[in-house]
Amino acid sequence: MHAWPASEVPALPGQGRDLRIHDTATDGPVTLDPGPVARIYVCGITPYDATHMGHAATYNAFDLVQRVWLDTKRQVHYVQNVTDVDDPLLERATRDGVDWADLAVQETTLFREDMTALRMLPPQHYIGAVEAIPGIVPLVERLRELGAAYDLDGDIYFSVDADPHFGQVSNLDAAAMRALSAERGGDPDRPGKKNPLDPMLWLAAREGEPSWDGGTLGRGRPGWHIECVAIALDHLGMTFDVQGGGSDLAFPHHEMGASHAQVLTGEFPMAKAYVHAGMVGLDGEKMSKSKGNLVFVSALRRDGVDPAAIRLALHSHHYRSDWEWTDQVLQDAVDRLGRWRAAVSRPDGPSADALVDEVREALANDLDAPAALAAVDRWAARQEAEGGTDIGAPGVVSRTVDALLGVAL
User: Fold this and answer.
1) How far apart are CA 104 and CA 50, in angstroms?
2) H or E segment to which residue 38 belongs
3) Under 8 Å CB-to-CB from 390, ≥6 apart: which residues?
4) Can you tell me the distance from the alpha carbon of 72 to that of 235, in angstroms, rounded to the nearest whole number?
C-alpha cells in the first residue's frame, strides 16, 4: 500500500532542540534522544469514514513530532498502518450495500488526499492489515508455542497473564480495563476466556465475512492489536522511540500491543514513549463515527476552506487537550492565516532570529503549538505596527512556519 506525497521541509539555520514529551506509561515528561534515525509508529485509520477532525488532530500531533526531529538533523523512520479489515468496516459496508474492500479503498484514498492537502509528512511504510497477514500468522503461532495463546471455539486469544508488564502502558485498574474493553471492541463477557481482558489474536472464519488461510490457525482474520505489532516489529523492531495515537488507544490497543510484543521478544518496553493526542468534540460530545457528529476535512476543503487554516485551527489547541470544534475556532484560524500572510508579504520586517528559537523551544516542550503560534503572532503584530529593516525576516518566518508547523504562507 502506498502513502501520499511528501511536501518539502525547508532547512532552518542552526539546530532544533531534543523533544521533551509526555509519556502515558510514566504519566510524566521524558526527553527523547533517538539515534541518527528516530523511529515512530502511529496507528492509522479504519477506513470506513475518513477523515474527521479527530483524525486530523491526531496526525497533526505526530507530524509535529517528525518536524521537531527533522529540525535536529535526524532522519525519521515513520510507520503507519491501515486497519482495512475489521468489524466496523464490515458493518458499514453491509449497511451501505457496498463491497467492504471497495469501501476500504475509497476511504483510504480520501484519507491520502486529506493528508496531502494538510501537508502531513507521510510514513515511509504504510501497511494495510490485509497485506500484513502473512507476517501476522507466524506471530500468533509463536505466541501459542510460548503458552501465551489459547483456543476458544476455534478463535485464538492472547493471555494477558503471560506478560508480567501488562497494565504498565495505561496504568488502569482491572475494573476500568474491563469497562473500556467492552466499549472499545473487546469481549470481556465471553464465556470460556481465561481472563476477561484477554484479546482476540485470530478470529476463525465466519459465514459471510472475509477470511484468509492462517496455516495451523485455520481460516480466519487477525485481531486488531496483533496487526500493529506485526507491522511495527517488522519495520521498526523493539524499543522504538514513540508509539502514537489518540488517547482512546492507550487501552486496550496500545496496552495489548505492548504485551504481545514483549512476550514475543522477551524485551521491554515495546516503545520508549507512549504518546496520546486528546479527543476533539462537537456539540458537547466526543467527535466519533459511532455518534455521527463529525466534521470532515474533505467537506471543509470542498467548501473552500484553505487547508493551511485547518492546520492552524488544530495547532491552536495543545495536542494532549480535549477540545471542541466550533465555527469560531475555524474563523480564528482563517483570520490568523490572513494576518501572517500579510506580514510575510512585505519586503522586510523586524528581525526573526528570536522567533526561530521561540518556535523551536515551544515545540520541543511537549509540542506546545499554541505557544509557537503566539510567538508568530507577536512577530506579525510588530510587523504591522512598526515594520522593520531586515530584508531576510519575512522569508525566515515563512520557512520557520513551513518547516516546523507544516503551514505554507
Assistant:
1) 10
2) strand 37-42
3) 348, 349, 350, 351, 352
4) 22
Q: What is the pLDDT of residue 290?
A: 63
- Kindly state the average pLDDT of the residues 374-401: 97
Burial class (CB in 10 A: 0-12, 13-18, 19+), 372: buried
Q: Which of 147, 114, 96 is nearest to 305 (CA)?
A: 114
Whose cell is 521524558? That residue is 30
* Contact between 93 and 46 (Cβ < 8 Å): no
Banded model confidence at residue 151, pLDDT cuts 50, 70, 90? very high
* Cell digits of residue 295: 466534521
Which of 378, 335, 332 has its CA nearest to residue 355?
A: 378
Residue partners of 354: CB distance under 8 A and separation at least 6:
none
Q: Quick one: pLDDT at residue 222?
A: 98
pLDDT at 125: 98
Q: Set out the domains of the chain in order of their start, with CATH numbers.
A: 20-277 (3.40.50.620), 306-405 (1.20.120.640)
C-alpha cell at position 336: 490568523
What is the pLDDT, as a whole number, of residue 138?
98
pTM over 0.85? The answer is: yes
CA dist 152 to 1, 200, 329, Å? 33, 10, 49
Query: Cis bond leading into 252, ω under 30°?
Result: yes
Pairing of strands 271-277, 240-246: parallel
> Helices 393-405 and 327-344 sit at what angle, rounded to 10 degrees?
140
In 29-99, which residue ranges form alpha helices assigned H by DSSP? 53-71, 87-96
